[in-house]
Each structure stands twice: as structure tokens, then as C-alpha cells.
Amino acid sequence: MEVNLDEYAKEWTELSNECKNLETTNSTYLDLLENLEQLQEQCTKQIKHQRYRMQQISKNIKLCTKNKRLTPEEKDTLADLDKNMLKRKAQLYEIEQGLPQKNSLYLKIILGDVNVSILNRSDKVRYKDDYEKFKLILNVIGLFLSFLNIVFNYRALELAFIFLSVWYYCTLTIRESILKVNGSRIKGWWRLHHFISTVCAGVLLVWPQGETWQLFRAQFMYFNVYISLVQYLQFGYQKGVLYRLKALGERHDMDITIEGFHSWMWRGLSFLIPFLFMGYIFQAYNAWTLYKLAEHPDAPWQIPVLSLLFLILFIGNTTTTMLVVPQKLRGRIKERYRLMSLSWALKARNQIKGDKSKLDDSGLNNECDKTK
Fold it and tell me: Which of 32, 67, 121, 196 has minimal CB crowding within 10 Å?
């Protein structure tokens, strides 16, 4: 076989020209990246300046209106200012979502000073959807392992399930922190719930095999089966409800499913409340059982710690849910009265219009009689 070196040299020359084009493109990219960072810093500074000026304006308005009676014109001006400030706050929030955000302390400890901001909106939604899929898949796996642990009493199977729980909740806390940086509005108890669950799973992992564990084992596995079934139903329904509310513009794109009950879940999910409260009562029952087991002569330190953790989960879940439900009921009553007042106003308006049309018709008839 003849070797044609000239042809190879020609290919190398073409490849070298392509490499020069690559270097030019890379240089342009680096310049744009540097300009992008400068623009991001400028936007961040301008957002801070806007918020500072708005705070000063609000403060000055309060001082001016504190000991002064406002004229109707001044009241209208003040109402317009308040409305414009609310719009500006929403506008600044939307602008901020396209800029890199600082990591929380938890992310700095876990990941270091790595930028986890996702600047592209579609990538943010894709990451959020991946988080939802992760929860559903791991929930099904956890349900399967819990059921196997009820049927078979093997230590290796128990440790596999508990280790999966530790990894699952650790991963959830990291993913939720990343979602929080990127605009998700999960907050309060539902984030703390996962941190406590991580500690709970870790304590279970180091609970030594013995009589006390065997006394609690079956109850714990039945608890996990029940919670997994409720969470599976809940995540599925929440995902559908969130999709509909986002399509109507009533929820944010980065809102996620949660283990508990939230105000937006009222539409189509209120039937889950009894099942949720049964799960919370099960947590309280676990706390009580562990409390009684702590009196066992061979009880390790893990038993009272787990009893306290289950009690905290019960109190937190129950309190949060009970605060949401009355708030939503009051909102529904207010909405009902508002709709009733609107319907009365429309009826009165239609009646006035009908009376006016009757008067106009009678006036026309009188004019016609006069011309005759």
C-alpha cells in the first residue's frame, strides 16, 4: 500500500487553519465571558442601589405622613407610589433570578465556594424536574425495601434500607439548597424537616443489633411503608396541581412538591389531610414507644435520641399543617364574601340599567304621542 504523505500534509494544513478559527472563537468567547461578569456585577450593584433608595423613600414617606392629614390628591399619590413600589420589587426579583446568587452556609460547608447558580431559566426548570423524579424513584425503592424488611428479618437488608435513607435525605438537603439559591421558595419547617430526618436516619444506622431493636423493628418498617405510600400519592397529586397552577400563572416555576400540606394544595388535595394526620400520629406513637423502650436495662443511647427526634417531627408537622388549614379556610370565606358582594353589585347595576332603559322607553313613547 502506497503512503501519500502530501495528502496527509494537506489535511494537517486544513486542520491547522481550523485550529486558528477555534483560537479566534475562544478568544471572542473569553472576552464575552469577561464582559458578562462585569455586566452581572453592575446589575447586582444597581439592584442594591434600587432597594436602598426604595427603603429611603418608604422611610421618608412614613415620617412625612405620621403627623399630617393628607388631602385626597395626596392619598391618591401615596397609593400610586405604594403600587409602583410593589411592582418594582417584583421586577427586581425577576431580574435577580437571571444573576448568580451567593451560596448558603450549608452549601459552602458541603461544596466549598462553588457557584451553583443556574442562569438559564429552562435549565432551572429542568433541574427542578430532575429533583422531583429523584424523590419519586427513591420513594418507590424505599417502599419496596420496607416491604421486604417486613417479610424477611435480615440485618443486611435493614442496613441497606437505613443507609439508603441517610443518603436520600442528605442528597435532598443539598438539592433543595441548590434550588433555594436558584429561586425555589421552599422554606421554614419543610427544609428543617429533611435535616432532622437525616440525623434520625444516621442515628438508626448506628443503633446496634439487639433485643431493643427487634422490639421496635416491625413497627418502624410498617411506619415506613405507610409514609412511603402517602408520599407517593402526595407527590403525584402535587405535581399535577402545580402544573395546572403554573399554567394559570398562580404558582412559580421553581415551586416544588413537599411532604406536608401547603395552602396551594387545597385544590384537589384536601382529601389527603386525614392520611397526613394519621402519619403524624404514627410519628408520635414511635416517639412514645421509644420513650418506653428507653426504660429497658439494655437500652442504648440511640433510643432516647430517636424518641426526641420523632417527637420534634410530630410537633413540627402537626403545627405547620394546622396553621395552614385555618388560614386557607379564612381565605375561602373572604373569597366567598367578596364574590357575594360582587354579585350583589352586578345585580344592583343591572337593576339600575333596567330602570333607566324603562324611563328612556317611556320618554320616547310620550314624545311619539305628542307628535301624533
Answer: 67
150: number of Cβ within 10 Å: 13
Ranges under pLDDT 50 in the chain = 250-251, 253-266, 268, 332-339, 341-342, 364, 370-372
pLDDT for 11 equals 86
Buried b (16+ CB within 10 A) or exposed e, 163-178: eebbebbbbbbebbbb
User: What is the phi/psi pair of residue 138, to 5°?
Assistant: -65, -30
> Which ranges of 182-272 does DSSP label H, i.e. alpha helix?
189-205, 211-247, 266-269
Whole-angstrom distance, CA of residue 331 vs CA of residue 79: 24
How many Å is the Cα radius of gyration of the chain? 32
Q: For residues 44 and 99, what is the distance between their CA atoms, to the nearest angstrom?
A: 8
Task: Provide CB contacts within 8 A for 51, sequence distance 6+.
Answer: 92
Q: What is the pLDDT of residue 87?
A: 87
Grid cell in block for residue 189:
419547617
Q: What are phi and psi of 185, to 5 degrees?
A: -105, 25
pLDDT tens per residue across span 191-207: 899 999 999 999 999 99
Q: Exposed, middle or buried by CB within 10 Å (0-12, 13-18, 19+), for 265?
A: buried
